[in-house]
Amino acid sequence: MSLDAGSNVSPDPQQAFLFADPAGHSLSPRMHRAAFAYAGLNGHYEARRVPAEGLAEAVAGLRRQGVLGANLSLPHKETVVALLDDLSPAARAIGAVNTVIHRQGRLLGDNTDAPGLLQALSDAGYSWRKGAEVAVLGAGGAARAAVYTAALGRQRVWILNRTRDRADELAAAWAGQGAEVEVRATDLHDLPWSRVSLIINASSAGLNAPEETPLPGFDFSLLPAGALVYDMVYKPDETRLMREARSAGVKAENGLGMLAHQARLAFCAWTGCDVPVEVYLQALNVGGAT
Ligand SMILES: NC(=O)c1ccc[n+]([C@@H]2O[C@H](COP(=O)([O-])OP(=O)(O)OC[C@H]3O[C@@H](n4cnc5c(N)ncnc54)[C@H](OP(=O)(O)O)[C@@H]3O)[C@@H](O)[C@H]2O)c1
C-alpha cells in the first residue's frame, strides 16, 4: 500500500486544531497533516497553546466556516463539555471530550480515546472474551476511557490507583450510570491477578520517566498465560512496566496504537475520510518508517 500524499488536492482550505496547555510537544500535527495529504484534502492542522481562561474563546472560534473541529488535551478534556451543543454517547458516559466536530455552526463533543483503545487492543491480539477480567491502573480521564472501553467489551473491571479515594469515586460513578458490567476499586494485594487477562496502564506513571512504574515490584508471573499489558504511555517506546512484563514473558504494547487510532477516528469524523492507521503510525515513525 502506498502511503504517499493523494494526487487530487481539493481547493477549499479546511482547518483543525489542537487546544492544550502545553501544546508544543504534541504528535497530533504530524499525524493529521499526513492524513490530510493522504486524503488529498487541502487541510491545515495546528496545535495551539490555550490556557484554561482562553478555552471559551478558542472553542467559539470553531464555529467559523471552514473549521472542521479540534482535538482537546490536558487540561481541557472535561471543562470543554460545558461549551458544546451536544455530546456523543461515549463522551457523555466518560465525561470527557478529546474531539470536537463542527457541523454548520454546531459543536458536537466526542471521545475517540475509547474506541481508539478498543481498536488498539484488538490490533495487539487481545481477545474480547465476555466476562474476562481487566485491571485499569489510574483514575483520571484516560482511566475513565479505559473503563468505558473494557465495559463495552463486557469485561469485569478492577480499578487500581495511587490515590485509592479516586479509584472509589470512579467505580461509584460507573455504578451510578446503571452499567451492567461490574467495576470495582481495589488494592494491589486484593486483586485476583491470576484471573486478569489484561492490564491497562491509564496512569501517567512512566511518562517521560523511564524508571517509574505504576506496579513497582510486581510479580508478572501471577498473570494467566496469554495476558496482555497495554501501556497508554508512549514515551519512552518501552516503559519500565512494559520491560518488566516482557522480561517475565508477558506480552506488552505501548500507547502508540491508541494514539494513532484516536487520531484516525477524529479525522474520519471531521472529513468522512477513513485514512488507514498505517499513515498515522508512519507519521509517528512506528514500524521502522521514517
Ligand atoms: N495513548 C493515548 O492515545 C493516550 C490517550 C490519553 C491519555 N494517555 C496517557 O494516559 C496517561 C494518563 O492521562 P490522564 O489524562 O488520565 O491524566 P490525569 O487525569 O492527570 O490522571 C493521571 C493518573 O495517573 C496517576 N499517576 C500519576 N503519576 C503516577 C505515579 N508516579 N504512580 C502512580 N500513579 C500515578 C494519578 O494518580 P493520583 O490520582 O494518585 O494522582 C492519576 O490517576 C498519560 O500518560 C497520558 O499521556 C494516552
UniProtKB/TrEMBL annotation:
Protein name as it appears in the record: Shikimate dehydrogenase (NADP(+))
GO molecular function: shikimate 3-dehydrogenase (NADP+) activity
Residues annotated as the enzyme's active site: K77
Biological source species: Deinococcus navajonensis
Lineage: Bacteria, Thermotogati, Deinococcota, Deinococci, Deinococcales
Binding site for shikimate: S26, L27, S28, S73, N98, D113, Y234, Q262
Enzyme Commission number(s) from the entry: 1.1.1.25
Shikimate dehydrogenase substrate binding N-terminal domain location: 18-100
PANTHER family per UniProt: BIFUNCTIONAL 3-DEHYDROQUINATE DEHYDRATASE_SHIKIMATE DEHYDROGENASE, CHLOROPLASTIC, SHIKIMATE DEHYDROGENASE
Pathway recorded for this protein: Metabolic intermediate biosynthesis; chorismate biosynthesis; chorismate from D-erythrose 4-phosphate and phosphoenolpyruvate: step 4/7
Binding site for NADP(+): G138, A139, G140, G141, A142, N161, R162, T163, R164, D165, R166, M232, G255
Cited HAMAP family: Shikimate_DH_AroE
Subunit structure, interactors included: Homodimer.
Gene behind this protein: aroE
